[in-house]
Amino acid sequence: MKKIILREDEMPTRWYNVVPDIPGGLQPPLDPETKEPMGPEKLSAVFPMALLEQEMSSEPWIDIPEEVLEVYKIWRPSPLVRARKLEEALGTRAKIFFKNEGVSPVGSHKPNSAVAQAYYNKREGVKRLATETGAGQWGSALSLATSKFGLECKVYMVRVSFDQKPYRKSIMQTFGADIVASPSQDTNTGRAILEKDPDTPGSLGIAISEALEDAAIHDDTNYALGSVLNHVVLHQSIIGLEAKKQMEIAGEYPDVIVGCCGGGSNFAGLLAPFVPDYLEGKKIRFVGYEPASCPSMTAGKLAYDSGDVAMMTPLLYMYTLGHDFMPPGIHAGGLRYHGMAPIVSALIRDNIVEPKSVHQLECFEAGVLFAKTEGIIPAPETTHAIRGAIIEAMKDPDEPKTILFNFSGHGLIDMAAYDSYFAGELHDYSYPKEQIEKSLARLPNVSKTDEID
Amino acid sequence: MKKIILREDEMPTRWYNVVPDIPGGLQPPLDPETKEPMGPEKLSAVFPMALLEQEMSSEPWIDIPEEVLEVYKIWRPSPLVRARKLEEALGTRAKIFFKNEGVSPVGSHKPNSAVAQAYYNKREGVKRLATETGAGQWGSALSLATSKFGLECKVYMVRVSFDQKPYRKSIMQTFGADIVASPSQDTNTGRAILEKDPDTPGSLGIAISEALEDAAIHDDTNYALGSVLNHVVLHQSIIGLEAKKQMEIAGEYPDVIVGCCGGGSNFAGLLAPFVPDYLEGKKIRFVGYEPASCPSMTAGKLAYDSGDVAMMTPLLYMYTLGHDFMPPGIHAGGLRYHGMAPIVSALIRDNIVEPKSVHQLECFEAGVLFAKTEGIIPAPETTHAIRGAIIEAMKDPDEPKTILFNFSGHGLIDMAAYDSYFAGELHDYSYPKEQIEKSLARLPNVSKTDEID
What residue stretches are annotated with the Tryptophan synthase beta chain-like PALP domain (chains A, B) (predicted)? Predict the structure, then answer.
């Protein structure tokens, strides 16, 4: 059999929360002003209670609402595929499996959380969601999700993407979202920045600040984030739960689980249900691959830091390059984030997840090989996972082992990146040491950090 | 259950050939020079024998080679989905099902034939395929298929698309194809046209001529066509065979089957296996929807005509607007063809298929409604089938009936069309009566035509 596909009635009906498994536990988010642990009351201005409960939950299993499952079924359960042609091309004895999250209507894993977030907001009477998007994957996913639950959606899209990625904009528009280039005239943050610098290309940090301000000033509006947070990782656990069942059907168990890491949610979602096995002594490795040019896990510091440039978010305890680190313009926009999900960060600290980095040219090369062998063009982000899987397979090509990686999305909407690659316009960036040192020097001063780190 | 998905081992292992079912039979293709029926010997210069046998076959069932099935399994079997949210939004009592062919790696049904064509060419020792592509769907599909069988692929892409649709070009490039803007310096046809008019935007007619010339002058090269021909319809019957099984599992049988029609292959592929039931007295309607601006079925003439502007192809007996009819620049590029598959044409003549036409604005409107209700953005071509299904559902909303339509492809690579729609730049074209009369007056003079038509 080439693909393993579950029946709809075999789909998981509960998400798996990996937080209780983390040996060293998680540090609480801190209030950016008081530096004290932040309770749900303050966060409830922009998040619904159900998501805040999930954010703080220590329950291992959380029911997936029927309404969320119904929307998941537009594309889920997703296939698990044995990449035999890739194996043959590599000449490896390793068995390589991938979980194909590119089958969603917007081509990535992002709707797994977007749908859940839209549902809980709707249930708690929220009328409108505000969010930011860089490359457009998260904005597309949330637009899809809000259209399914009859919510309005306002997307602050980083201006440079807004101008250069019109297709993503029209995907969101088709789903009925309201999209504005960020910085915009719609918020105080945006207006202030535009006044100083009318031609700014914008940044994800600015867009987050605008979306948060929008949610704060509109009574009917909440904010939604597409990665990093615990509840996002929780929702993405559907990937790992399905994959685990599918591997069982295939009669296999992974020796290595590989993922690409931006904010960390797709990788964490895949590995979550396998962590208990690891803790019970099963021999399994979890390897996360990030871009060498934005190396939060491999060159960052485990510390409390802000999620955005303007320091409006709670402080999260995570591997970070510093909240004002500006990564080079690599083509995997979804991996250009200064921090890493607290869950992934804690699993690295506890020596469960191994962090690695790869350069973009070797990733595109792997992506083209994958397209030619397996027939599916990966998103630039996903090529990092493919490169990672190839590295694992080729370490000792004669050693039989089973590799499972997350195919987080297809590349059909990101072909401009391949254009640049084929045109020879892309190059690898050297490790931005000096810049990282500078931005790490500007981490918020939190006394707690030192005792833990 | 939302979707019905077959297991891989439930996939059809034979294609269904609807030709023997056609009450009035098919007219043979004619040699464009002698106007005599054209045997396989002359065509074998550009097609492999196996495809020519399929083209002429009167066998109802033809085995799908194992190697083709293996590649199909990258995305097949494809889902059958009940569009309940669309039904609710319409307030109809009709049950609407769609077969989702958008799940292929290039987002459309085209690889169903591309893979088979690449396989048979490879088996007969061909090293290289030449083809034309307009919007890029067929070129992408053939590039994918040739990459799977280790063939070279040369795509002549209409210049205006080559310049305006860089993403499609890079999809083909990722799969290893060689793409050139047509007219090109690579053929006599191309050079002659460029000499006269260096700034020509090109046309599908010119691109077909270039690809045919390429195949004719290179010993190792064959030609591949993505629609119209009988063997293409045969390969697309996998759509209908799966859908029929899936409808049985759903406990339903369609009262109406709807499709969009360009060259006719996706619609014919869906309806083919249902025709025998119709002939045995089952009450079922087959309704094909074409653009009102390119109305070969509803305003064309059933006659022998050429498949390309330069009249290099065999003459086919089909509904046609005349081989030099230039359709307006509507955004469903895949439906801008002057002729209709001989199989579909014969089924119209025999009063089995009902031809209808729709305007592009009502189609985009239907496409946006579909995206918001079902969560999947359709290709501009596919919106014609959706519009058709809605028309059928709303004829008498209180009458319970079951509608099945072919969702031939997703729109993620064609969002520029939606951009134009949202920007209010699109308009409907009135019926191009005068132009059709002119081009029909230039049909090739074939004495046979008159006695049959």
Answer: 75-409
| Residues B116-167 pLDDT 10s | 999 999 999 999 999 999 889 999 999 999 999 999 999 999 888 888 777 8
Q: Is the dihedral of CA A274, A276, A278, A280 positive or negative?
A: negative
Residue predicted with more confidence, A40 or A300: A300
DSSP string, B414-438: -HHHHHHHHTT---PPPP-HHHHHH
What pLDDT, on a 0 to 100 scale, did the predictor assign at position A331? Answer: 82
Interface list for A 357-396 with B (CB within 8 A): 367-368, 371-372, 374-377
Give the list of residues 6+ apart from residue A214 with CB closer than 8 angstroms, or none. Answer: A130, A154, A156, A186, A187, A221, A223
pTM of the model: 0.95
In chain B, how long is the greatest CA-to-CA distance?
Answer: 61
Q: Do A416 and B170 touch (CB under 8 A)?
A: yes
Is A415 in contact with B170 (Cβ distance < 8 A)?
Answer: yes
Tell me the residue range of the domain where B201 lies.
111-225
The interface predicted TM-score of the complex, written ipTM, equals 0.94
CB-based contact, A83 to chain B, within 8 Å: no
Residues B103 and B115 both lie in one domain: no
> Are residues A133 and A277 part of one domain?
no
Note whether B89 and B182 are same-domain residues. no
**Domain harbouring A211, CATH code:** 3.40.50.1100
Q: Which residues pair with A356 in a beta bridge?
A: A289
Cα–Cα dist B344/B264, whole Å: 6
- In tens, the pLDDT along B102-118 reads 999 999 999 999 999 99
Please report which helix (H) or strand (E) contains residue B293, including its range: none
Quote the pLDDT of residue A173.
96
Q: Residues B122, B205: one domain? A: yes
CA dist., res. B453 & res. B449, Å (int) = 6
Residue B400: pLDDT over 70: yes
The C-alpha atoms of residue A312 and residue A212 are separated, in whole angstroms, by: 8
| pLDDT score for A319 | 98
β B285-291/B353-358 pair status: parallel
Amino acid B432: pLDDT: 80
Amino acid identity at A17: N
CB B278 within 8 A of CB B352: yes
Tell me whether residue A84 is in a domain: yes
- Asked whether residue A393 is domain-assigned, the answer is yes
In a domain, A180, yes or no: yes
**pLDDT tens, B357-378?**
999 999 999 999 999 999 999 9
Q: Which residues pair with A95 in a beta bridge?
A: A402
CB-CB neighbors (< 8 A) of A100 in chain B: none
**β-strands A256-260, A315-320: how paired?**
unpaired
> Taking a contact as any Cβ pair under 8 Å apart, which residues of chain B between 292 and 321 contact chain A?
none
Tell me if B316 sits within 8 A of B304, measured CB to CB: yes
DSSP-assigned letters across all residues of A349-404 = HTTSEEEEEE-HHHHHHHHHHHHHHHS-PBPHHHHHHHHHHHHHHHSSTTS--EEE
Question: How many domains are there within chain A?
Answer: 2
